């Protein structure tokens, strides 16, 4: 392949990744607080190493001097992709036929068409004059960021949108003018993103082509727009109604650069990546089709050769050397500042020495985005005040989109007891006021605010106040934040961390409420959650803390478009003397690596042990936690970072527990997919084992609604109601809720209806309801794995599952579970999933795919370390689904028992069961019209003086 082109940053040279405090990851002392002595490498040694790297760069680039050109890296190089480290994304392009939809008022049809295509990750619109209104009407505004770009009357709009929970923005957005016609300027919009799950960089562009121009000039301008705007390692995607078909001059130009994708005529998706599946779909009410495709960000492209399309220059080798020496000098200066530190350590904010056993209490905290403009426009103030009032009593509350905190407190009946701080407000700042109960707290510092960012709506801030809890004497630091749109980067995270460190007391327990506009796993949230490791994760609405979480979760926030998130936290001595996770920068740890999950469920992005991921997950600097996959990709945010997990601290997010009376052993697990179960016995010994919570169907699951103690027990406080796009998203809501016990899911005219159940006693019964699904969430105790029903596909080992062929691997084929500890646990996920056709399991990373493809697993692809098994569900059931049972009197129970009418069957359960092909196994008189047994009877015995009876019926044999 010739001499490979070397780029200029010293940190990218092969030897540079072995240094703990090198230029690419180093931070100044004032950015990190007090220094630590955990790094034994001296400052002089660091400087010497950096200079050695600089010299090596000089020598390397002198060899390059003879080339006398700078090559633009081929857009197909994907060296940052490693087997198993990526994922699939779905992309859509859609011309909305704006003027016609508007003239015929078909907005609902348009919104429904977009909604039914979901979920997807990226979408490019053409003929779209208001992208935010489209996202809002389609139910996407909550999770999607967008860029409108130039608009009518002078330009033809080509807005694009991306799921902010799946991507963090790293560049742009922007646009390039590429042509014009009688309707005005034609543009290419673009944005650079980082895929959160895989760390892969993506360049996403969108275009609406001019009419009557498919020439070379247009193609050249599109090509130039991509080359000038994308990053060297980005996988590129371009959506568009190009108004030119494949084979025209302009399309030949751009498709020589973006060689893959989905060809839908003049509506296409182009890419430098790997296309998995896709095609044209009906786009009504538009006159264009909707074109969609699924693309791989995984290893399929790794190491493959491609055509080299490059820009050459007359830049001399001497210029290259000068540039490299400038980088080297900068590294020297930077590392001299680092020399006195000897290491960089993230301050542990878990010190709670001011807590004394028994002296504290619990406090309740709320975060709530008020949807101010919409509530004002629709005069829903009474509804808003009532929603806040009914959530009480609470102690601390953080508001977002709140332009008058005193009026809110007054309308909610809180002004008499609460003090507040409004902070900067409209029109220049986005308000983030906070309020505290003055009868529970005395103020000891502040209030104040820190500017942490900005967006098109103005300055973004973090407000704060320091308080002393009257009952316990514990000091509390309370902050609130409303995050910027389109910025989830490290810089924002650093400013939030600095805002906390600079203003909290050394012994304060810290709490931060917020609509962060960034989800867990983004760079900014990784930063702040490495500092405030506990709390309640409600999506982009969260409560973060250094304290102990007792309970909490998301609740319906109407009339806001956000949920209300609340949590109860302990200020008592149960935290005194306990250990906490220590996340720190040390020597001997590199920038390759991955995620480590500690026993409390907190995840940390850590480096490798400078062994090139040689030992797989064991290479991660993860002590006392569950290591994930070691990814062979440089990530400056984990460079040198190690976590030592607490081994005897309290679990911060308790989950449902079950008690086995025979052995007096209590089992509890956190409700994350990679959780830790602590078994405490009467002999006071403690063993830590990994376990995984799963979803199980209740009473058959399908056509059932969830209930409490009986089929008529359906109190509103048992669950929180959400709107989701799929049952899988509803499951994710449950997993993210600390005390979730199950879900109920259905689809109505407004889309997916998701009940997340948090009833302490769990889901105890169901009722018949066509179109509903009821699933219980907890440990896979009842699922069973029955190995006889799993069979190898192909060889079974060192092969990954595929659909119709070895290249058919659409993301819609499976449900992915991360950090699953064993093959048996992966099988348990399958058994609990009614659609399961088989599993794919990677022992090294704990990746478990539960395949639900309708045609099952029909092929495999070679992939070391992977296992592919097909699954045959149990061919028979104990009894028919309850919707097939006749004369049920509105109550059904578990174990094939229901409350049925006596009159048609002479009060005998044997007659009843025989009437629909079953046999009776038990009979009883009910108590209080539910599943409780008043007295038992024989199947052939007549139960008299009652209108209904409890019959247990099973299929014969």
Automatic annotation (TrEMBL):
GO molecular function: catalytic activity
Domain Apple, chain residue ranges per copy: 698-778, 798-874
Entries under Gene3D superfamilies matching the protein: Endonuclease/exonuclease/phosphatase
UniProt-listed InterPro entries: Endo/exonu/phosph_ase_sf (IPR036691), Endo/exonuclease/phosphatase (IPR005135), Pan_app (IPR003609)
Region (Disordered): 647-671
Organism: Polarella glacialis (Dinoflagellate)
UniProt feature, compositional bias: Low complexity: 652-671
Protein name: Apple domain-containing protein
One family name in Pfam for this protein: PAN_1
Domain of life: Eukaryota
């Amino acid at each position: 392949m010739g001499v490979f082109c070397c780029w200029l940053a010293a940190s990218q040279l092969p030897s540079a990744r072995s240094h703990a405090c090198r230029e690419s990851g180093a931070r100044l002392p004032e950015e990190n607080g007090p220094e630590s002595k955990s790094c034994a490498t001296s400052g002089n040694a660091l400087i010497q190493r950096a200079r050695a790297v600089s010299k090596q760069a000089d020598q390397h680039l002198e060899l390059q001097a003879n080339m006398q050109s700078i090559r633009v890296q081929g857009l197909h190089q994907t060296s940052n992709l490693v087997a198993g480290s990526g994922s699939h994304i779905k992309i859509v392009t859609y011309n909305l036929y704006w003027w016609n939809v508007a003239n015929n008022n078909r907005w609902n049809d348009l919104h429904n068409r977009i909604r039914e295509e979901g979920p997807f990750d990226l979408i490019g619109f053409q003929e779209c004059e208001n992208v935010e209104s489209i996202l809002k009407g389609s139910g996407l505004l909550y999770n999607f960021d967008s860029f409108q770009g130039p608009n009518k009357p002078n330009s033809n709009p080509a807005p694009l949108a991306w799921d902010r929970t799946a991507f963090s923005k790293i560049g742009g957005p922007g646009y390039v003018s590429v042509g014009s016609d009688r309707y005005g300027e034609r543009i290419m919009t673009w944005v650079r993103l980082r895929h959160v799950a895989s760390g892969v960089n993506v360049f996403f562009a969108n275009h609406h082509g001019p009419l009557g121009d498919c020439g070379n000039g247009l193609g050249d301008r599109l090509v130039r727009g991509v080359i000038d705007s994308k990053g060297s390692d980005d996988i590129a995607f371009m959506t568009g109604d190009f108004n030119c078909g494949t084979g025209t001059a302009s399309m030949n130009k751009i498709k020589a650069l973006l060689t893959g994708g989905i060809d839908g005529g003049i509506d296409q998706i182009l890419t430098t990546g790997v296309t998995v599946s896709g095609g044209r779909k009906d786009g009504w009410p538009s006159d264009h089709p909707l074109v969609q495709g699924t693309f791989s960000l995984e290893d399929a492209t790794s190491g493959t050769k491609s055509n080299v399309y490059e820009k050459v220059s007359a830049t001399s080798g001497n210029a290259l050397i000068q540039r490299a020496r400038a980088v080297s000098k900068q590294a020297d200066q930077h590392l001299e500042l680092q020399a006195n530190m000897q290491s960089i350590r993230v301050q542990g904010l878990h010190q709670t020495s001011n807590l004394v056993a028994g002296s504290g209490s619990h406090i309740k905290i709320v975060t709530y985005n008020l949807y101010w403009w919409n509530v004002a426009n629709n005069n829903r103030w009474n509804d808003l005040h009532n929603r806040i009032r009914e959530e009480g009593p609470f102690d601390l509350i953080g508001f977002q989109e709140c332009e008058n905190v005193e009026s809110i407190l007054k309308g909610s009946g809180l002004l008499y007891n609460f003090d507040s701080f409004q902070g900067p407000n409209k029109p220049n700042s986005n308000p983030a006021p906070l309020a505290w109960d003055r009868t529970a707290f005395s103020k000891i510092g502040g209030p104040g605010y820190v500017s942490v960012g900005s967006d098109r709506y103005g300055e973004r801030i973090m407000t704060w106040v320091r308080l002393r809890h009257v009952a316990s004497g514990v000091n509390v630091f309370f902050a609130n934040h409303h995050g910027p749109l389109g910025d989830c980067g490290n810089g924002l995270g650093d400013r939030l961390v600095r805002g906390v460190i600079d203003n909290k007391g050394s012994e304060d327990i810290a709490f931060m409420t917020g609509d962060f506009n960034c989800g867990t796993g983004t760079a900014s949230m990784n930063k702040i959650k490495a500092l405030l490791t506990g709390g309640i994760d409600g999506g982009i609405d969260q409560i973060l803390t250094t304290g102990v979480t007792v309970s909490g979760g998301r609740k319906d926030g109407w009339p806001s478009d956000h949920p209300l998130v609340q949590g109860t936290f302990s200020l008592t001595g149960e935290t005194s003397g306990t250990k906490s996770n220590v996340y720190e920068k040390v020597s001997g740890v590199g920038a390759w690596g991955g995620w480590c999950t500690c026993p409390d469920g907190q995840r940390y992005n850590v480096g490798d042990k400078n062994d090139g991921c040689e030992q797989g997950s064991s290479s991660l600097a993860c002590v006392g936690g569950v290591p994930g996959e070691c990814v062979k990709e440089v990530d400056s945010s984990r460079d040198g970072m190690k976590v030592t997990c607490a081994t005897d601290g309290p679990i911060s997010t308790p989950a449902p527990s079950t008690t086995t009376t025979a052995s007096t052993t209590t089992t509890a697990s956190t409700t994350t997919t990679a959780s830790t179960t602590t078994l405490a016995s009467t002999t006071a010994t403690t063993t830590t084992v990994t376990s995984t919570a799963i979803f199980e169907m209740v009473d058959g699951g399908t056509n059932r609604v969830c209930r409490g103690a009986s089929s008529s027990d359906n109190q509103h406080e048992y669950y929180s109601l959400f709107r989701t796009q799929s049952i899988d998203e509803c499951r994710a809501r449950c997993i993210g809720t600390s005390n979730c016990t199950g879900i109920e899911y259905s689809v109505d005219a407004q889309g997916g209806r998701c009940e997340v159940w948090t009833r302490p006693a769990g889901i105890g019964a169901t009722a018949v309801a066509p179109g509903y699904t009821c699933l219980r969430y907890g440990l896979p105790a009842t699922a069973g794995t029955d190995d006889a029903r799993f069979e190898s596909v192909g060889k079974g080992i060192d092969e990954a599952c595929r659909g119709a062929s070895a290249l058919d691997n659409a993301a819609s084929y499976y449900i992915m579970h991360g950090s699953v500890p064993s093959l048996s646990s992966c099988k348990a996920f399958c058994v609990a999933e009614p659609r399961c056709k088989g599993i794919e399991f990677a022992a090294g990373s704990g990746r478990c795919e539960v395949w639900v493809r309708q045609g099952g697993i029909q092929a495999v692809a070679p992939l070391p370390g992977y296992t592919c098994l097909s699954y045959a569900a149990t061919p028979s059931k104990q009894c028919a689904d309850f919707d097939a049972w006749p004369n049920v009197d509105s109550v059904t129970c578990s174990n094939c028992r229901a409350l049925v009418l006596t009159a048609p069957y002479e009060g005998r359960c044997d007659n009843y069961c025989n009437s629909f092909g079953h046999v009776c196994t038990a009979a009883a008189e009910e108590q209080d019209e539910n599943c409780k047994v008043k007295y038992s009877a024989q199947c052939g015995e007549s139960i008299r003086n009652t209108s209904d009876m409890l019959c247990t019926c099973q299929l014969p044999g």
